[in-house]
Specification:
It is a single chain. By secondary structure, this protein is an alpha+beta fold. The chain folds into 2 domains: 198 residues, Glutamine Phosphoribosylpyrophosphate, subunit 1, domain 1, CATH 3.60.20; 30 residues, no CATH class. 34% of the residues lie in helices and 26% in strands. The strands form 2 sheets. Strands 7-8-1-2-9-10 form a 6-stranded antiparallel sheet. A hairpin with a 2-residue loop joins strand 7 and strand 8. The chain starts with a strand and ends in a 9-residue tail after the last helix.
């Protein structure tokens, strides 16, 4: 009922997930990330406990293939699940259970994995992956959304459209970006629109957040407004979120 892409941007080291489904609020329970650890999407007959468990095991130092074996042992319903994940180094593991509904399957490239179930056909996964790999020069978020739109053009979820999400994880404990469309007639288009809105103020403002290099962030409004004006080409009139 869902397809998703998990990836590591080779230039920045950022981890990302984009997901779409004919299922309400798919971004609420399927994508999971943790700074310095990895990104996971758990889908099909959803078990939302698998994402956090996989991240805990990766955090504890287990390689992705061992994490997948351990996840299999934790869930008696694993054959009805689909799960794929990437660690902070870009290593991938994916599993499509034998009871997932056709079309279902997964495919991977260097630092990227695509998986889906209840899809119109294999081209949904194939075209999503191809689009991502063909556009490595594009900014990470745009690349992820464009890849999902390519999968949708190939048929997407065979039941139709409803929800989509994109999550970007950096080195900080909070996500760099987390946008959800829970219920919409064209969720990927709406996701793209919301991303454009985020670029107007929210994303530029995020330079003020604490980081490892700046543990207290930026609180000087004049300095911050100057930084943001450099990014956007126009003054924004800084306000707290």
């Amino acid at each position: 009922m869902t397809w998703s892409i998990v990836a590591r941007d080779p230039e920045t080291g950022l981890l990302g997930i984009a997901i779409a489904s004919r299922f309400f609020a798919v971004g609420a329970q399927c994508p999971w990330t943790r700074a310095g650890v990895g990104a996971v999407s758990t889908q099909a007959m959803l078990n939302p406990t698998l994402g956090p468990r996989a991240l805990e095991l990766m955090r504890d130092g287990y390689p992705v293939e061992i994490v997948m074996e351990m996840i299999e042992g934790l869930d008696k319903g694993i054959e009805a699940r689909q799960i794929h994940f990437i660690d902070a180094q870009g290593k991938i593991a994916a599993r499509t259970g034998s009871k997932c509904i056709d079309w279902c399957g997964d495919a991977a490239g260097d630092g990227v994995s695509v998986a889906g179930n209840m899809l119109a056909g294999p081209d949904v996964v194939g075209d999503t992956l191809k689009s991502y790999l063909d556009n490595l020069h594009e900014p990470f978020v745009e690349r992820l959304i464009a890849a999902m739109k390519a999968g949708e053009a190939a048929g997407g979820d065979k039941r139709g459209k409803q929800a989509a999400a994109v999550v970007i994880q950096g080195a900080e404990p909070y996500t760099r970006l987390d946008i959800r469309v829970d219920d919409h007639v064209d969720p990927l288009e709406e996701l793209e629109r919301l991303y454009e809105v985020a670029k107007e103020r929210s994303i530029p403002f995020s330079v003020a957040y604490p980081t490892r290099e700046r543990p207290y962030g930026i609180t000087d409004r004049d300095y911050l407004e100057g930084l943001i004006e450099q990014q956007t080409g126009k003054p924004l009139g800084i306000r707290e979120i």
